[in-house]
Amino acid sequence: MSLDIFAERGIPLEKQEFDWRDLVRVPYSKLDDDAFTRVRVILMNGIESEALRFGHAAARMNKALQLQLARVRRVEQHQQTLVNWLNPPDQSALETTIGFEQVAIEVTASVAAHEPDPYMKQVYHFGMLEDFDHLYRYAALMDRIEGKDANALTQCYTDIRPGRPTAVEHRAPEDDLRECYDRKKASPITKLNALTIMAGEHQTHDYYMTVGPTFADPAARQLYAEIASIEEQHVTQYESIIDPYETWLEKWLLHEACEVYNYHSCYTQEDNPRIKEIWERFVEYELGHLHYVMDLFKTVEKRDPAEILPQTLPEPIAYQSHRRYVRDVLQAEVDLRANGTQIVGPREDSTASMAYRERMNRNGSPSQIVAAGYRWAPGTELTLQNGAKAPQQARP
């Protein structure tokens, strides 16, 4: 179901209202709702967080736009509050972390599968295999300190197994930068994909930096510190693929289009009727923001938004299991490394990154320590490294 973003004007900004009761809704159920409801809530919190981050940065650089940015930002902040407060209070920080990594795997896999630019597709594959390993490491941590099976949260949609080992993901800064798309030639979906994944990864970094110090277990504290460092690398990677020569208003326009696109993707696939109503309402709000910025774009830059935006939204993000797709990428690309802006074979690994990695891991890697001996299997049974089942214990 395509959405004509030029014909649909949504709800005007001045009619977008909240009250305190409206902001705090009944949360989803961490076990009874579909896992993709949690995935959508986490991602949309990240999308709104990026909207606020961009809005403040733009205000600091554009005196003439400060009032307009403040008006839109106030609504965005309330939208983020409503979305983020859908997370249930009985969901631990570690359980939410499992949700974050499922977002990173399934949403990035969908984006990569529909990305028309082969270079961008490979960049998404590269980051996805690292997040795939993070899910495995956090699942091991959950087994260790909470005695829980992460699969109860991911609901069999996502494999829990090693990806590119976290210990080898540490790179020198020059090897985290990538080539950017050309703002005049890139397709609209390429721009929306880049903004979506950058927003999700930035939120993940900030979340790990917030909750990591709250754990008492030393292994947990170190694991969060290690993976937060990788997430910072991911933010560096994904923000570098966005053309820095877009104007501030061009970027604002794309941010609003990205929000419409993501809320619409959520709305078309949500099973929970209470949450679906929220996605539908925020599609209308974001269309209102988009047309507000379109008018500014015409007035200030004297340009037609049709230069930047597609008439209708691209195919929605697919909220479904990408197990086969991820397995194929894992098999073909797990050993790849980065050297400068290029993804290369292991023999071409960067000397700067190898030196940095050796220095960071000189006293061991928390991600290896926490997963030592851990092999996930259905029913939380341990299996041997080659995949064979461990001998069953004799019944007492």
UniProtKB/TrEMBL annotation:
<protein>
    <recommendedName>
        <fullName>Ferritin-like domain-containing protein</fullName>
    </recommendedName>
</protein>
<dbReference type="InterPro" id="IPR009078">
    <property type="entry name" value="Ferritin-like_SF"/>
</dbReference>
